[in-house]
Structure to design on (308 residues):
């Protein structure tokens, strides 16, 4: 029997005037899973994560992190958890390495004990050269990578990522996808991801829950979810001229000009297959956008079904 990393039972959050942010939700995430929590704006994703991370007070319900009740042993439960917020929350006048050493100190690690791990994180996230730079001089992508490094300083068992690639270009997004994928695969970290990019969730996650108006309306595998989506069209732009169109099963590619092409995915085809083939053929993708928002369409369909 697989160990449960996160167990949520009958969780509610009620604000003033009897406004429900979460309505009796229950959810389980298994150890070592890469789990997506999806939903439109205001659905309850950030509230759920805020309660798990002890940043928001719940109204009622139970939450256990690796079988530790967050109400009964908050410190131990928090030690198992790393959290990357959606908004930048870094001291703008601290250096990169000082932020990480300070974070290590919060968890009882001395500078001497934490130095090796911190320097490894900086190297893995391509921030080592910027370690003595103050935060306000970093680019948005560097700040995002620093927040991820900070969340991993104490080597938590579970990592929660709230919109980790929002506003980043496709190249940096893909770099972070690779890093998160390796964290899950090689270090067996349980990762929970919220995102508005379905291509991000389908590239990384094995299981998914969809929340709307504070209610979990779908809890399934990513593979099952993708089977419900009809053919989808993307527009893709490359850094260098396309000499030859790659042949990918389940994918139709129509060249628009030397740098741009139209890509249609058949039902059940993962966008990740495109990235793999393009990487092998040394074709660098600089932008990728939906012709239509298939995630939004899927939400509408699921919500309509939920009403009936």
């Amino acid at each position: 029997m697989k160990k449960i990393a996160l167990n949520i039972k009958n969780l509610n959050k009620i604000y003033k005037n009897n406004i429900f942010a979460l309505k009796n939700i229950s959810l389980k995430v298994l150890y070592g899973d890469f789990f997506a929590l999806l939903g439109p704006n205001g659905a309850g994703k950030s509230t759920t994560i805020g309660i798990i991370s002890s940043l928001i007070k719940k109204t009622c319900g139970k939450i256990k992190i690796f079988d530790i009740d967050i109400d009964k042993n908050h410190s131990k439960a928090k030690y198992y958890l790393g959290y990357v917020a959606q908004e930048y929350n870094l001291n703008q006048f601290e250096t990169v390495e000082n932020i990480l050493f300070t974070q290590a100190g919060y968890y009882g690690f001395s500078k001497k004990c934490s130095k090796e791990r911190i320097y490894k994180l900086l190297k893995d996230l391509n921030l080592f050269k910027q370690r003595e730079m103050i935060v306000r001089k970093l680019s948005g992508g560097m700040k995002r990578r620093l927040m991820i490094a900070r969340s991993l300083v104490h080597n938590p068992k579970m990592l929660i990522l709230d919109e980790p690639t929002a506003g980043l270009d496709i190249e940096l997004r893909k770099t972070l996808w690779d890093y998160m994928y390796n964290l899950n695969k090689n270090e067996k970290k349980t990762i929970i991801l919220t995102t508005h990019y379905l291509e991000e969730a389908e590239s990384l996650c094995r299981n998914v829950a969809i929340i709307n108006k504070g209610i979990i309306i779908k809890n399934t595998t990513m593979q099952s979810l993708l089977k419900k989506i009809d053919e989808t069209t993307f527009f893709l732009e490359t850094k260098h001229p396309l000499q030859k169109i790659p042949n990918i099963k389940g994918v139709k590619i129509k060249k628009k000009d030397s740098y741009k092409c139209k890509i249609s995915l058949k039902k059940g085809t993962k966008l990740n297959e495109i990235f793999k083939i393009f990487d092998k053929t040394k074709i660098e993708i600089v932008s990728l956008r939906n012709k239509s928002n298939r995630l939004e369409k899927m939400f509408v369909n699921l919500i309509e079904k939920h009403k009936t």
Q: What stands out?
A: The chain has two domains: 4-225, 230-307. The first strand starts at residue 4 and ends at 15. The chain has ten helices and 14 strands. The chain has a mean pLDDT of 87.
